Amino acid sequence: MKNIYKVLLCITVLFLSSCDTETTGDVSRVTNYAVIEINGDSEVIINQGAAWTDPSATVTLAGEPYPFETSRVVDPNVPGVYYITYSAVNDEGYAATATRTVVVVSTATETCDLSGTWKRSNNSPGTMTRTGMRRYTYDNAGGVTGDNQLTVDVINVNDVLLYIPFKANASPSGLSVVSFQPGEITSCNNFSWSLSASGFYGNFVRTFSRT
């Protein structure tokens, strides 16, 4: 009977919130966790000076609106990669978070034209092709050839930071990819980045030099 009671309690809030059951002796209780839903896209790319209003998030606990915090404010006039984290902690101290990435792209003329041939530090070659203002594609972002070779879109954010937007099926094998953290342009002949591409690639920094 005790087990049936625990299951019924979780079913009651299943459609409204996440729950878990803890048992201490003969006493069972349900823990409700905050549920965070980002309003709008989790990745946003805008040009410097564009209008921007954070659509925020919807946070509930047990189906009811619940207070939360927003980690930072985006300044659309300052190019950069902004990570906005929405967080809520329930009464028992369990935290829930969700993150939105906002990339503000400089509208100034680029310091360096990154198009051309490059190689990773392991000598794996690649080609950077310009597709627009501060926009490129790179055909070997992970420095690994074969079915898992990644072709990515690249944004020169502000002549210092590089960002790889999310791309599904970026390799012949169907891997999805996105920046793990912003890359860095160290000179017109050198850059580095780390990426997240399923379980095949690690998140370590990869460095590239012009050939």
TrEMBL record:
<protein>
    <submittedName>
        <fullName>Immunoglobulin-like domain-containing protein</fullName>
    </submittedName>
</protein>
<feature type="domain" description="Pesticidal crystal protein Cry22Aa Ig-like">
    <location>
        <begin position="36"/>
        <end position="104"/>
    </location>
</feature>
<dbReference type="Pfam" id="PF16403">
    <property type="entry name" value="Bact_surface_Ig-like"/>
</dbReference>
<dbReference type="InterPro" id="IPR013783">
    <property type="entry name" value="Ig-like_fold"/>
</dbReference>
<dbReference type="InterPro" id="IPR032179">
    <property type="entry name" value="Cry22Aa_Ig-like"/>
</dbReference>
